[in-house]
Structure formats: C-alpha cells, structure tokens
Amino acid sequence: MENVAATQSAFQRLKSSCVPLLANSLLTPTSIPAVSKLLSDLHNTLAQLQASGYAFAPATISYVFFPLSSLLRRNDLPSIPDRILEKILNILALLSEPWWWDMDVVAWEQVFMICSAILGGIDRKGKGKERDEETKVAAANCLWSLLHERIPTEDPSSPANRDRARAIFDTFRKHAQTAKFLPVLGQTLNALMVTAESPHLPLQRISLQVLSTMMKDYLPDAFVPSVLPGTISSMSKVALGAGSQRGWANGDIVAAALLVMQYAIIRAVGDDTCVREGVVRSVDHLEDLLGSGSTGSEPSGVQSRSPYSTQRTESWLKGTASQLHIALNALSPLVRHQTPTALIGLATFAASILSATTLTVPQSQSLLLSFLLSLQASPFERVSAQADTSLRQILTSSSSSRHHILQVLLQISRDNLAALPRLLLSHADSKVEHVATMLAAVCRLATPRRGPPLPAISAISSGVGKLLGPHGGVEKWGWSLLSTLEFTNPPVIVTQTSAAQLFLENNPSTAHVVPFPELTFRHVSSQSARQALEEMFRALGTTAGEESLFTIEWFVDVGQSGRGRRAVAALWCACRLLEGAGRVSFDPSSSPTSVINRGRRLEKVARDIARRIAETWDTWEDEELPQDAEPTSSTDENTLIEHVQGLVTIRGVPGTEQTAPSSHPHSAVQPILHRALSLQLLAITAGILESRFLPLLLHVLYPVLHGIVSDTSIVSASALAALNFITTSTSYATPANLLLSNFDYALDSVSRRLTRRWLDVDATKVLAVLVRLVGRDVVQKAGDVVEECFDRLDEYHGYEVIVDGLVEVLGEVVKAIEEDEDNRLPRESRTTFRGPPVVDDAHWLDSFMEWFRHRHDKVEAESEPEPTRDASYPREAWGKKDEDTVDGDDAPAPKSGRARPGEDPFEEAPPTPTQTLTTQIVSRSVYFLTHGSPTVRARILLLLARSVPVLPESALLPSIHHAWPFILNRLADAETFVVSAAAALVAALTEHVGDFMARRVWDDVWPRFRELLKRLDRADASSALSRRSGGGGVGVGTESAYTHSHRLYRAIITTMTAAVRGVQPQDAATWELVVLFRRFLHAQAHEELQACARELYGALCENNEDAVWLGLAATLGWVGGSVAFLAEPKWDIEGNVKMFLKC
C-alpha cells in the first residue's frame, strides 16, 4: 500500500507538468515561455523524487517521456530554441538513469542519435549558428547517462541479480559496435573531440568523460587503430593547453585527456591485443620458443572486417610506435605542471602505458620511466607516492617484462651519469637538475618505502654498489666529473676577529643554530639544481652502502693530494657520498627516529679519514702548487667543450711582441674551500661514529678550534657548525660541556704547537677561543692554562704576536672569573664619600631652629659618654665581651685579649683558589705594562681592570701600588685605545677601592686628564671631523663616534664619574669639573657624550649641588657678578641642565 500511495503521489506531481506540456507540444512564439516554465518544473520534480529515493517504474518513465517525445516529433529540431532543447536534454539525462535498466535498444539508439546530432551540429547544419555550449553540455550529460556502466547495487528492481547490469551493458555495447551504428559512433567521437577543445570548461570536462568511456568500452578493437592518430593529436592539444590563452590547462582537464589517450593507446597497440593478432610474440616460457611461427604471423583472412577498421601488421606497428613516441615526447612539459591532479594523471598514464606496451613500443620505455622518476621527486606527497608505488609495482610484478624494464632503468642511470659533466659545462641548470633528480629517484627505489609496505628493488642497490665499488671504474668517470664540478671562491673577508668569534661573543648559547655555509658552483647557478646534485650523491651513497667506501676513499685521496679545484670537488663528492653511506644529515629537522646500525668497515674508514684530516691540517700552508692545478695539454683525451663568458682574446699580428695571457678568473688553488670541506668531512665522521668519536678528539679538536679563529668567514662558520654537530653527535648538551670534558686534549694540542720544534702563531688564538667557549667553567682548568701561558711568555717574550696572543688568553681567563658572580667580593669602601643629605628648599632652617631651641637643655647621664666620637672603631678589644659572657659550663676562654680568627670585621678571609690564581696573573702581568706593543699594554690594563672586583685588597693593592707609575704613564700613551684602557682601570679602582684612590685620583690622574682635555679641545678646533654648529662655527666633539678624540672624551668622562662617586672630591677639583665639562652638555655635541656628561653632573649634584648650580647657571647667563665670565651663549645646554637640576 505504501508503494501504491507513493506512486500515486508521484503521478499527481508529474501530471501537473506533463499534461500542460503535452497540450503545448507544438511550439509557437507565445507558448515558448510557458513550455520553458513547465520543463523547469518537471526537471525539479524529477530531481526531488530521485533525491527522495523514489523507484521509477517503467510506466512512470513512459508517462514522462511521452510529452518530451511529442515536443521533439511535432517540432523541427533545428527550430527548437536552445534553452528549450537544453531543458529537454537535462530531463532526458535525469530520466535515463533509472530508465537505463528497462530501456529498449531502439529508444537508446534514438536518444543517442539526437545527442550526437546536437553535439556535432548536424541538426542545424547550413541553417544558422551552432547550438550554445550549455545545450551541448546537456547533450553530453545525456550521452553519459546512456553510456556509463552501472554496478549491480544500483539495480532498483533486483540488486541481488549481479549479472543483469553486465548483461544490459553488453547489449548496448554490441549494438553500438554493429556495422550500421558504427558511423554514428564515429561521428559522435569526432564531435566529442571537437568539443573537448572548447574553452568552456564544463563542456570540456563532460566531453572528455564521455570520450573515455567510449574509448574504453564501446569502440571495436579493429576500429581503435583508425582513430588513434586523431585521438592522440586532439588529446595532446587539450593536455598541453595549446588552444588556451594561458598556455596550460587545468589539472583535471589534463588528467581526463591523458586517460582518453591511455585507453586509446592500450586498445590500439597494447601487448595483449598485438600478441593476439600475431603482430608480436611474447616469450614467457620455454614452450614459446619452440612454438611455430605461423600461428600468429599472419592474421586470419576469413573473418569479416568492417570497412572502417585497420589491420594490425608489423609495418603498421613500427610506424605507429614511431609516431606515438614523438607524441609522448611532446608531453614532457607536463612533468612541471603546477597542480597535483595533472601530475597524478601523468603518473597513472605513464605507468599504464609502460606496463601494457613493453613489446610493442619499446623505444618509449625510457621516456615513460623518466616521467615516473621525475614525478617521484615531486614536492607533492600524493604525486611522489603515486609515482613511487607505480614504479615498484612494475619492477616487482610477475610479468617477464619487468626484467627488460629494469635493464632500461639501469641504462638510464648510466646515460645520465655519463652526460652530467657535459651538462655541467653547458650551464644547463634545468637539465642538470633533471638528470640529478632522476638518478636520486632511481636510488630511492633500492630502499623499502615507509607507509604502505612496498619491497625494495635489490637489483638497483647491487648495480649502484658495483658502480661505486672497486670494479666500477671510478678512476675513469671520476676525473671527468671532477674536471667539471668546480666551485667559485667565496668573497674573502679578512678580519681581525672571525665571524664565529663575534657570534660567540654576542650569544654563545645559540651556537647550535649555525648551519654549514653554502658553496657556489661555477657552472650551476640555480639553488634547486645545486640541491638536486647534493641529493643525488647522498642517494648514491645510501643505495650503495659500504660498497661505496672504495669510491669515497678514492675521492678523499684526490682531495688530500692538493688544494686545487679538483681536490676541492673531490672532497665535496666524498662528503656527500659519505653523508649518504653513513645516513648522516646536517638538517636538524631530519633526525632519525630509530637506531641506525653501521658496519665496522664504515666506522674504520671514518676513523681513518678523521685522522688523515687532523694530521694534514697544519701542513697545507707549506705545500707547493698542487699537481692538478698545472695547465693541461690541449690534446688531452678528456677535453670537453666549455661555455665561456667574457671578452674574446684577440691574438696580435705575427712577429709582434706577444702580451702575457690574462690570469684565469678562477684561482687554481682554493685553500679556503678545501678547509671548509675538510671540516664538513670531520663532522660527518663524527655523525657516523657518534660516541665512539670521543677518542679522536685528541686529534680533531685543534683543527676545529683553529678553524673558528680563521680570518675568513666561510672557514670560521664551517668550524663553528662542525663543533656544534660534533657536540650533538657525541651526546653533549653544549659545546662548552664537550670542551670542558676534553679540555686536556685541547690544551695538549695547543701546547704541542707552542714549542720551538713546532710553533704555530694561531695556537694562542685557539687557546683564547677555547677559554671563551667553555665560559665560567674554565676556572676549574684555569690553573693549567695560566701556567702554560706564563711558561710560553718566559720563552717567547720577544715575539710580539705570541705575547699578544698569550696575554689575550690571560684576559679571557680573568674575564671568565669576573663574570661568575660567586667570585665578586661584596665589599664597599669605608671612606667612600656620599655627600650631604639632600634637603628640600622649604626646610633649610628647620634643623637649625630645632637646635637653637634646645641648645641649653642638659644632657642626660644615660646618654652616650662620647657623643663627639663616631662608632667606626671599637671601644674595647675584640672578643673581650664574648670572653666575659661565656657560660660557666663551657670550657674556659683564653685569657689573651687577641682577637680570634674571623671575628675581626676588617680581617679578610683566606684567599680562594680563584683569587690565588688571579693574584698570580696580576702579579706576573704588571711587568708587561711597558711592553713595546700597544696592544699588549692595552690588554694588560683591561686584565687589571677585570681583576679589581675579584681580588681582595691585600692581594690587589700592592700590585697596583707597585705599578702605579706605569699606569700613569699609560694615561699619556700615544695610542688612544691604551689611554682608554688605563682610564677604565682607574674607573674600576675608584669604584671598588675608593679610599685607596682618594689622593691618587685628584693628585695624579685629574691633572693629566685636565691637560688632555685642553689638547683635545685645541685639536678639534682644526680637525675636519669636528662637529659644526648651526652658525658655521666649530661644535663640540666630532661627528663620528669612532674617532680617537670621541673615545678619549668618553673614557675621561666615564672615569671622572666613577671618581666623583667613589672618592670624596676636593672643592677646587669639583669646581674644575663643573667648568671643564660644561661643553659636553651642548645640544650639538654627540648624543653619547651628552649622556655621559649628564651622568657626571648627576654624580656631582649628589656631592655639591650648589657648585653645580652656580657654574651651570652662570653659563646660561642666569647669574652675573663675579661669575659672569662663565657665560657661554654659543652652548645650548639648558635642555640637559633641566634633566638633573631643579631650575
């Protein structure tokens, strides 16, 4: 009852549209709008019923189809408007989905022919314009409803009958392949190929969809070869976007066009079809070799053939395969398509054609394999997985063709590797990248794929292992590769301090983010091609494994034989191959998730390489020009054509004097690159050996640290990256922990290079950077460092460079000690002047009036007996009070009045080992204050300044007192940085031991500073670097903050600020300071000097604000009288004065 009710309801809904539609079946200009509305209502009703799951009965379908057929019969097809015909076709397409199960062949044929006529324009041929794209889309949709195959579960009547769908489909297909219907099928195919090239995307998509099902299921086997050329031509244009203004097609269009080509090629020249018709023979078993040749040599002539068919013969296959190869080669640009849909379609197309045409189209196998190999390296994960899966399935299938395809794959690898040198010299970056990408893709097939389990191709790993093994001929192909794989010298930036050292000084904790610097190829300019080359060599090493060690050792031997271009290229190749063989990666994001098992042979080679690099590190500077840098003969058998840029050299007239040939723009010897790559090789060996690399640190630490102190940025950056990678590989948290744990190794390597037999002037720099890297923890090992430094100072005190380096090391040790807060003494000078308390102006006389009122009051007896004396000294012997109050049960206290140890507040504690070490450094360093090198003098002064916060007075002051005359002489040194260092020492002393410096500052230092200020003022008046005021006169100071006078001004002002705060100034000296430093408050002075001057006057205000106010107010002209001569209208100091004075 429910089905009857649903049928009645559907009938009533359809009746409201079908009956009026039948009444208006004859179209007139007045009835067209009403018919259009009725067709729209009918389409909506059918769509709603289909969406609700209503099962259309044959009677219902016939009821709906009758008014539609009446419209088509009663009206001439060309006269039906496009929008009416479009709606009719849309209703037929919707109706054909349930009708297909019960449709008779006649109705199917009639609907098919109507759609074909509309698509091909037959209905309006010679009678006006063609149908619009929307009408053709509706016709194509109707064709799709008629042609596509159904599955048994879609059967509305009996889903359990699984053969019904296949039987109906076979009925329609057999009818389409009859000789009577074949012309209609061919005309429809031609029309669809035309519409497939339409710029209207919906029409293009549905046309390709219908084409694919027609090509796959409906065309007869003998008819497909006839349409193959046209199909390939049309679909190639569609896939390549030849008719598009953009020059490329959408991804789904490309995939659909390739699918049509795939069905056409497989059905026309597929192995199965050609073997069945006797065009080719398949030999899978021994019986096939013994079979008679006449069974399939000639096709049977008794079978009746259609006049539209093409007979497959050997000559036809040969010509077709040749033309097909040209067409497939034209699809090469699709490899670089920007959408993954197109790339997946290309991978599917190439894999299907490759596996189905092994016997018929052998010349295209290398091309199709290159498509798949290129797509395997695609950045899209889906594309790469699809191509990789297809390759592995083809190479591991049970078909005998897999052996032939594998041989083709290996031949592709050999050809590409042989062509690489020629491509490098031709500067063809895209071709180099393509070749390297394919070689890497071949190597990836040798390893099992993660994710979906797919087996590895063992034949590839054995082939690559043979290539890189002892019998691979690396002595032959290696030299041709090294001759073209050249690197350009980086811009050499020589600095006194390396880039790595500056980086460590700024933020040593972030050293782990430093990567290895990138090297630039001479013949490769794009970064993608360079990365492809690197990945290719890594993949070769990974695939060959330990079999590649022979080639790696050969490259290392070539690299260690000289410092030329070939040696550098050999080291680069060795790095990349060893990186792959050891599965080592410099990328921190690609850390292995599982333990990597490495063989003993690989680890032994890694140890040998690390030792060889360490042993030859110090010998390269003494070597002569390497042999590979010598000019080669023009008759060399390996001479290659080279792409040269620049001017062409014109030879002079014979008999005239010949000019010397210009030097080659690329140096033959490249020691900088050689050292950078040697450091990379050391890092790789550490990654292979991991914790077993620790014993090699005895040999390796010095080369790495020596590279850090290099004057060239690329070597220092490489060394810092190598140190970080070694730290990570050996499971240390930071480089400092690594160096501290192996400090004895590093110190021993430096000591061995500071002997008379082996003297390296850079050894002191290495020791300094070692101390800097370790940081404050170096204090534990500082005794050995200091002892080593002073031993070498005694031995080489006449060598300025060595003395400078050793003093720098001592300075680093003291700096590390000073940076540790535990080593700083919490002392405060007992006589440091703090100045009178600041009193508000409104309460100046309050204290006086309070005293005046109580001046005659009697002092109580309980008051302190000695009010005029302060409490800065004891009233009785220290410890006496404690002795008198000792508990009687305790042991009797000693009767002596001598203080017990530790109870004297002024008694210093015993020196710590750090203080003892610093005392030793200071006491033995003061003698170098008179050294002939100004750098040494400045380093000693800075060393003394850093030791002031660390040492107790009993250890510091005797050395300072002894060296005081020399320190004063340094204030008059000829070098500005020495004077600045001496001023810094004075500032540190006044800050920490002000009572010791009270007389020395004002009697010794200030007079020298005063004279120096006057000399600098006179010099600035005639200097071209002086600042100019607004009126054109000379300003204050210089324009730059890097001139000698600016640095001296800053050092003097900073020192006097510390003196004012740490030492009680005399009134006369205070007045001199107020007067002499006024000009630095000028608004036209340098901003840094203004800030320092404000700091100085702020300190003076804390001691004597009246004097500061009087001097500055007189300068501004606010006060006259006896101080009117201080007025300076040319100085604009009012803004700075208001910052620290209440004016």
UniProtKB/TrEMBL annotation:
<dbReference type="InterPro" id="IPR049362">
    <property type="entry name" value="TTI1_rpt"/>
</dbReference>
<dbReference type="InterPro" id="IPR016024">
    <property type="entry name" value="ARM-type_fold"/>
</dbReference>
<dbReference type="Pfam" id="PF21547">
    <property type="entry name" value="TTI1"/>
</dbReference>
<feature type="domain" description="TTI1 N-terminal TPR">
    <location>
        <begin position="11"/>
        <end position="375"/>
    </location>
</feature>
<feature type="region of interest" description="Disordered">
    <location>
        <begin position="858"/>
        <end position="916"/>
    </location>
</feature>
<dbReference type="Pfam" id="PF24181">
    <property type="entry name" value="TPR_TTI1_C"/>
</dbReference>
<dbReference type="InterPro" id="IPR052587">
    <property type="entry name" value="TELO2-interacting_protein_1"/>
</dbReference>
<dbReference type="InterPro" id="IPR011989">
    <property type="entry name" value="ARM-like"/>
</dbReference>
<feature type="region of interest" description="Disordered">
    <location>
        <begin position="290"/>
        <end position="309"/>
    </location>
</feature>
<dbReference type="InterPro" id="IPR057567">
    <property type="entry name" value="TPR_TTI1_C"/>
</dbReference>
<feature type="compositionally biased region" description="Basic and acidic residues">
    <location>
        <begin position="858"/>
        <end position="883"/>
    </location>
</feature>
<dbReference type="Pfam" id="PF24173">
    <property type="entry name" value="TPR_TTI1_N"/>
</dbReference>
<protein>
    <recommendedName>
        <fullName>ARM repeat-containing protein</fullName>
    </recommendedName>
</protein>
<feature type="domain" description="TTI1 C-terminal TPR">
    <location>
        <begin position="809"/>
        <end position="1109"/>
    </location>
</feature>
<dbReference type="InterPro" id="IPR057566">
    <property type="entry name" value="TPR_TTI1_N"/>
</dbReference>
<dbReference type="GO" id="GO:0005737">
    <property type="term" value="C:cytoplasm"/>
</dbReference>
<feature type="compositionally biased region" description="Polar residues">
    <location>
        <begin position="295"/>
        <end position="309"/>
    </location>
</feature>
